[in-house]
Structures are given as C-alpha cells and as structure tokens.
Amino acid sequence: MNRRFPGHRRMLTAAAAAVLAMVIAVAATVAVGTPAGGASTTGAAAGAAPLAAKPRPKPTRTTTTAATSTTTPVSSAPSSAPGTVESTAASTAAPVSSCTDGTAPVLFGGQPYCTGYVIGVKTGAYGTGARVVLRSVTVVQIAGTTATVEGGPSCLSPSSYCGATIPTVTAYFTGLPTVPAYGDVIDLYGTTGTNTLIAAGYVVKRHCDPDFGC
Questions:
Q1: What is the DSSP pairing of strand 106-108 with strand 111-116?
Q2: Where are the alpha helices (DSSP H) in the chain?
C-alpha cells in the first residue's frame, strides 16, 4: 500500500510534526505567562507599582464635662407609712412622757399616744383630752365622717370576766382628708371626748368584712 501511495505517508508525517510544534508553542506560552508556583502576574509580580498603605485615622479623644447637680436636698424626716392618714390640725391635748401602765408612748404625727382600748374610751376610763391609740380595731359602721369601731378586750381588767361581747365606740373623723372604709382594720389615733374619740389619724392594716369574717 505504501508503495502505491508514497505521498500519503509523507503527508501524515508532516501533519504530525505540525501538531507537535503547535503543542510545544502553546506550552512555552503558558510557561512564560505563569510564574513558578502558580502566582498571579498582576500587581508587584507583573511590574505594577505597589498600592500605597492607607493611613489609619488618629483616635479622637472625647472630653466629658461633669454636670453640676441642681437637685433640691430632700428632708431626712420620715414620711407617713402607706395607708396612714393624719390630721394637720394642731393638737390641744397635754403632752405625756409616760403612760399610766408604765409603757412609753408611741409617736404619731409628732405627738405621743398611749395604748388604749375601746372599752376604756367608751366607759370614760381615760377621762377627756387624753391621747390614745386603739390598735387593730375594725370599722363596723361609717356614715359621713362618723364611724363606729369595735375591738377587744371586753373589759379593762384581764382578770375580770366581761362576757364574749366585743365593745364598740363612736369615733369622729372630722377634719381628716379621708375616712376609713367599712371593714377596714386600723390603728386609730385620737383624743378622748365624752365616751367618744376624736380621730387625729389612722393607719389601715388590713380589711376584714364584719359580716363574713376575715
């Protein structure tokens, strides 16, 4: 076959040589364009001038000026406890340094009060014009500024038997900004009248419905 077509063999050889030369040329071009290690030719490697470093901004110092306080000083005098109501009227009762039972009086609204009982006010045992506090008495009736409060004991002498009836007494809340509600259990501060009490103030301790109990 080769003898019959001698030109065909020469054409194949020439084509193979041309392809090999093209492959070598492409390989040489890639080798020149890509540096060793695969690094890019852009930037400094390609001869480009390096970028100038951007200067960092200097820190700004913030100066804080202390403000001068203009708050008005608060009085150190204690205020009334929550639930406390007291009169602003001046008291006309005589000051006391000790109570008849030997205990020290308690202060309310800047005035001293001795512990008393409903039965003592009702029977006039403390006289008139005496400052007393009736502790934990219950408001069982209220009409305007007049209230009826009840509380034990049933008699002044613990050794005496007075029955199971809880005594009541009338108290007047005239001049006070508010009056207690029906069922309020209060500490009642006031000045004794004729078998009554003129309230100077009170402290609500809890609520107890007289009809249904606590």
A1: antiparallel
A2: 6-33, 118-122
Structure tokens at 55: 């200067």
How many Å apart are CA 17 and CA 9, to the nearest integer? Answer: 13
Helix (H/G/I), strand (E/B), else coil: 96? coil
* pTM for the predicted model, two decimal places: 0.57
Rounded Cα–Cα distance for residues 103 and 164 (Å): 27
CB 159 within 8 A of CB 182: no
Partnered with residue 184 across adjacent β-strands are: 207
Q: Where is pLDDT greater, at 38 or 182?
A: 182
- Tens of pLDDT, residue by residue over 87-112, are 544 444 455 677 988 889 999 999 99
- Letter for the amino acid at 131? R
DSSP state of 90: P
| Cα distance between residue 69 and residue 88, in whole Å | 33
CA dihedral 42, 44, 47, 52 (to 10 degrees): 110
Q: What is the dihedral of CA 27, 31, 33, 37, to 10 degrees?
A: 140
The total of other beta-carbon atoms located within 10 Å of residue 99's CB is: 18
Alpha helices in 1-157 (DSSP H): 6-33, 118-122
Would you say residue 203 has pLDDT above 90? yes
Q: Which residue has the higher pLDDT, 27 or 72?
A: 27
Nearest one of 141, 134, 129 to 108, comparing CA atoms: 134
Q: Do 120 and 142 touch, CB atoms closer than 8 A?
A: no
